[in-house]
Structure formats: C-alpha cells, structure tokens
C-alpha cells in the first residue's frame, strides 16, 4: 500500500519524506489556502517546491469547474513537473477532462468520490486514481469503509488499472482498515501516520531494555 501525505504544508511534507516511507502528496484548494497560498504564480511555485521536496505522485487540483477551463489549467499544472497528477472534481465536465488527460498520458486523480457509481465512471474515463472521502462519509454516519470495499470489488471484477486512493483519513484505524480492504493508496495527515508508530507496550518495553542495557555497562 502506498502512503501519501494529505497536506500543502512544506515542513510536514519534509518530515514525512525524511521518514523514508512517503510515496506521494495530495493537496486540495482548502489545504493550499490554509498555507496562505494565493494567486496563480504562488500556486505554481508552491507545487514546484513540493515536487522538489517529495518523491512520487503529487496531486495538484484544478480550481475551475468547466471542461475548457479544467483542461487549460490541468495542462499548465502538468507542465510544472513530471510527477504532477492533475486532480479533477467528480462532475460531468470532470469526466470529460479525465478522458482528455488520460488520452494525453497525463496522470489524474478524480476527487470528491462518495459513491461506487462515481468511482466506476472515473475509472471508465481512465482516471489514474479515484479519491473516495472516507472521513466525510463517516462524519454523516455513512460507513466510508464500505464504499472502499465496494470500489475494490468493482475494480477487481473488471481489472481496472485505476488505483483506489483512500482520502479524508481521520485516524490510524482508518489507515489499517484501508490496508485490510486493499486500498492501493492512503493519503493521510502527518498525525495519523505518526500515530501508527505508537504502542504503550513498545514504550514500556524499550524503557526496560534501556534500563537493563545500563546494567550491562
Ligand atoms: O484531499 C482530500 C481529502 O483528503 C480531504 O480530507 O479531512 O478535508 O475531509 P478532509
């Protein structure tokens, strides 16, 4: 399973990259705005910096919602760096844009996926990744993991190359459950990745080993 970090914060991206387990980065307009990035030049520069820090696929989301605007914007984003993946919203024009980029050999990530039917359409259009939003479904008392399972079954039935990129991760348990189901990628805030490290028996066991090591001189 690939690990992506879901942030536009450069320090957090550096920290995850330094851990040696990072396979890519996902961003969205909300995450970019949180870092105070605004204006076309600043946006393009920020994506370029992320590509210089992190290895692997870097999702950069279009801000427009019409086909013509999305393909113009996506072409510009894709030109920043070979690792850029154009992130397209799950709307009718988005499906057309996914097909356009797929035909051009440009990687895409179809975002805001909340149903298996949406994932199926995006895969048919040649999306590289689909991003089902696990946490936002859980937030409204709908089982987000069930959606990941449904998409896994459908993609396996027809051997779609499209990868399931589980997004909107809220906890380490989300990551573990996605791994059990067979999501291809999980994109997560740094905190949830670091929480996978923690176990009280590891801490107490190590404290004992360190104390005993001192006795050995
Ligand atoms: O990048 C898309 C997704 O991961 C958003 O997560 O926490 O805003 O629901 P969240």
From TrEMBL:
Location in or out of the cell: Cytoplasm
Top-level taxon of origin: Bacteria
Keyword vocabulary terms for this entry: Cytoplasm, Pentose shunt, Schiff base, Transferase
EC number: 2.2.1.2
Pathway: Carbohydrate degradation; pentose phosphate pathway; D-glyceraldehyde 3-phosphate and beta-D-fructose 6-phosphate from D-ribose 5-phosphate and D-xylulose 5-phosphate (non-oxidative stage): step 2/3
UniProt main location, coarse: cytoplasm
Annotated function: Transaldolase is important for the balance of metabolites in the pentose-phosphate pathway.
Catalysed reaction, written as an equation: D-sedoheptulose 7-phosphate + D-glyceraldehyde 3-phosphate = D-erythrose 4-phosphate + beta-D-fructose 6-phosphate
Keyword Signal: no
NCBIfam families: fsa_talC_mipB
Top EC class, one word: transferase
Species: Kaistella pullorum
Protein name: Probable transaldolase
Active site: 87
């Amino acid at each position: 399973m690939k690990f992506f970090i879901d942030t536009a914060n450069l320090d957090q991206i550096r920290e995850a990259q330094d851990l040696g387990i990072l396979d890519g980065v996902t961003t969205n307009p909300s995450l970019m705005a949180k870092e105070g990035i605004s204006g076309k030049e600043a946006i393009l520069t920020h994506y370029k910096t992320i590509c210089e820090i992190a290895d692997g696929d870097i999702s950069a989301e279009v801000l427009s919602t019409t086909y013509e605007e999305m393909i113009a914007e996506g072409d510009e984003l894709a030109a920043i760096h070979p690792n850029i993946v154009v992130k397209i919203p799950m709307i009718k024009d988005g499906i057309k844009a996914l097909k356009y980029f797929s035909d051009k050999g440009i990687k895409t990530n179809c975002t805001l996926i909340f149903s298996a039917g949406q994932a199926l359409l995006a895969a048919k259009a040649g999306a590289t990744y689909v991003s089902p939003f696990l946490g936002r479904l859980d937030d409204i008392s709908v089982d987000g993991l069930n959606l990941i399972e449904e998409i896994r079954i459908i993609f396996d039935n027809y051997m779609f190359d499209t990868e399931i990129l589980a997004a909107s991760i809220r906890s380490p348990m989300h990551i573990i459950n996605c791994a059990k189901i067979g999501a291809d990628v999980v994109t997560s805030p740094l905190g949830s990745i670091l929480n996978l490290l923690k176990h009280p028996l590891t801490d107490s066991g190590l404290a004992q080993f360190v104390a005993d090591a001192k006795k050995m001189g």
